[in-house]
Amino acid sequence: MHCNKHGKNNPAYACSHSVESLSDGIERGLVFVRDENDQYNGWCGECDDYLLANGGDWNDKTEGFAKIRLLCEVCFEQLIELNRRS
């Protein structure tokens, strides 16, 4: 993928709430994993609570709440620094 800030880079996916952190600097917590393709997938604390309250599986309802967005791996690593959920 091509990132306007970091150029050609590996893709990553995060909920729209976490991605907002890159603009406003507000920490929202971040739960993340690397998938079978070694790509980052992450979601904020609010999405994690919603996911768990709705059975713990990603589906149309939980993905609709999260509004997953594509970003580059370097941007995602910035999310990790901004939003580690303890």
Q: Can you put this structure into words, describing what you see?
A:
The chain is α+β, with helices and mostly antiparallel strands and 86 residues long. It has helices at residues 16-24, 45-53, 60-66, 73-83; strands at residues 2-3, 7-8, 11-14, 31-34, 40-43, 69-72. The longest helix is centred in the last third of the chain and has 11 residues, at 73-83. It is globular, with a radius of gyration of 12 Å. The termini are far apart.
**Shape estimate:** globular
The residue ranges in which pLDDT falls below 50 over 5 or more consecutive positions are: none
**Strand/helix succession:** EEEHEEHHEH
Strand content: 15-25%
Query: Mean pLDDT across all residues, rounded?
Result: 93
What is the topology, as strand order, of the major beta sheet? Answer: 4-5-3-6
Helix content: 40-55%
Main β-sheet description: 4 strands, mixed
Rg, nearest Å = 12 Å
Distance N to C terminus: 30 Å
- Count of extended strands: 6
From the helix content, strand content and strand pairing, which structural class follows? alpha+beta
Tell me the number of helical segments per DSSP (H or I, 4 or more residues long): 4
